[in-house]
Structures are given as structure tokens and as C-alpha cells.
Amino acid sequence: MKRLTSIAVILLGALVLGGCAQQSLTGDTYSRREARQVQHVQYAVVDSVRPVVIEGRTDGVVGAGAGAIVGGVAGSTLGGGKGSTITSVLGAVAGGIAGQRIEEATSRRQGQELTLRMDNGELISVVQEVENNQFFRVGDRVRVLRSGATMRVTY
């Protein structure tokens, strides 16, 4: 029975970690909060493109929490008496660290740094996630959508 419970908790932890993916940072994805909001539209030409990596989430508690639970349960199945308590604590700590690292790795994204020459001559730079491995290219004519501090580049 204890083994079955451990397996169930490990599977549950894997499902929770699967939900750690961060919101998309592409130019074509909008949050519910951004829908139906006014955006200022400008046009530009892509001056340069550089591939970058957008770091994964490190501020989430889901990965660390799920990892700690899974590690604690897995650790509790080892040893007996006080040994079981010690392995539970060590398993929880190790699981929490591993869970946080898994969350960061699974939410890391391929991005691109775009330098844009706006129609008014201004030169700006913006970083956004690459969608379907489609990078913008130097010379592309693009739309720049701004709403508050949020900016996105689209065709």
C-alpha cells in the first residue's frame, strides 16, 4: 500500500510540474487581461535579429513544492523509524531543489532580440519568444504594437 501511495504521489507531482509552463511570450499571444485593450500601432523595418534564450521561471513555488512533496514521500519509503524521518526530510529538500530546476528548464524559451528602425527614424530593440522556429529577418516590414509597457512585433 505504501508503495502504491508513493507511485500515486510521484505521478501527481509529474502532472503538477507539467503545469509549470509559463505564459507564451510570442507576438501572437495575448493574455485575457490584454484582450480588447487599445494598442498603438507603428510600422518599422527589422534592422538586426539576434537569437537569445528567455530564462525559465525561477519564482514559481509549484516546481519546488511538488518536488518537495514527491521527494519527501519517496524518502519516507526508505529506512525505518528515525531513519525514515531523516530520509523524508532529505528527500523533501532534494526534491524541492530538483523541482525548481525542472520548472526553470521546462519554461525556458527560444527568443529573438529585434532591433527595429521605426518609420520616424527611431531605433528600438525588443525581445520576444520565437514561434514555430520562425525568426524575423533583416529587412522585414513589421508592425509594432504598444500598450503601456508591453510591446509586440508582428507582420
UniProtKB/TrEMBL annotation:
Keyword Nucleus applies: no
GO cellular component, one term: cell outer membrane
InterPro entries on file: Bact_OM_lipoprot/Surf_antigen (IPR051407)
Keyword Lipid biosynthesis included in the entry's annotation: no
UniProtKB keywords: Lipoprotein, Membrane, Palmitate, Signal
Entry's localization field: Cell outer membrane
Its membrane topology: Lipid-anchor
Signal peptide interval: 1-21
PANTHER family: OUTER MEMBRANE LIPOPROTEIN SLYB (PTHR35603:SF1), PTHR35603
Protein name, as recorded: Outer membrane lipoprotein
